[in-house]
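Field log, afternoon session.

UNIT: design team B
ACTIVITY: writing a sequence onto a fixed backbone
BACKBONE:
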């Protein structure tokens, strides 16, 4: 590599983050026929969650792209600024090592942040916005105390109280 050559690192989004799944156009198209009061749908009807899941997916993609962009910017701004000239072999080894490290770091950071959020939400035992993890045992009309009794939702023998990975198939009822 001559002193006049520059190194440019770019990234390509994954299939999901570069697909229609995260576009505003698809989100509007898929949700345009839904009733605005989502509580009118059955608790297990996926139409209650579709918009939130599409927005969440878009947010995850935005975070991923931002993390990777930050690593690429760091790579461009601080790569191999030394007081001594590196041999071509040393330069290539350091370059390959940095590239491999940059590939894994954003994934690890993203996974750690997502797992932390999931664990905090799970262990707090708070009822999610859509009531997919817990449900109230008594109706709101009967509430006179500060404590509100609740019980976990169970999906196919998986209790949301014990496991943060309880899921069920999405259905349009």
């Amino acid at each position: 590599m001559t002193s006049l050559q520059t190194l440019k690192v770019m990234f390509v989004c994954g299939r999901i983050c570069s697909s229609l799944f995260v576009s505003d156009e698809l989100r509007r198209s898929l949700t345009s026929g839904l009733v605005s009061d989502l509580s009118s749908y059955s608790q297990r009807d996926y139409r209650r969650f579709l918009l939130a899941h599409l927005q969440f997916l878009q947010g995850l993609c935005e975070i991923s792209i931002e993390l990777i962009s930050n690593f690429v910017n760091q790579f461009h701004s601080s790569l191999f600024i030394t007081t001594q000239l590196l041999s071509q072999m040393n330069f290539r080894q350091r370059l390959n090592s940095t590239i491999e490290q940059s590939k894994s770091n954003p994934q690890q950071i993203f996974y750690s942040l997502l797992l932390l959020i999931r664990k905090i939400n799970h262990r707090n035992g708070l009822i999610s916005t859509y009531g997919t993890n817990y449900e109230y045992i008594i109706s709101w009309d009967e509430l006179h105390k500060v404590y509100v009794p609740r019980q976990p939702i169970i999906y196919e023998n998986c209790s949301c109280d014990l496991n943060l990975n309880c899921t069920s198939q999405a259905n349009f009822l």
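LOG NOTE: The longest strand covers residues 134-136.
NEXT ACTIVITY: expression trials, pending approval
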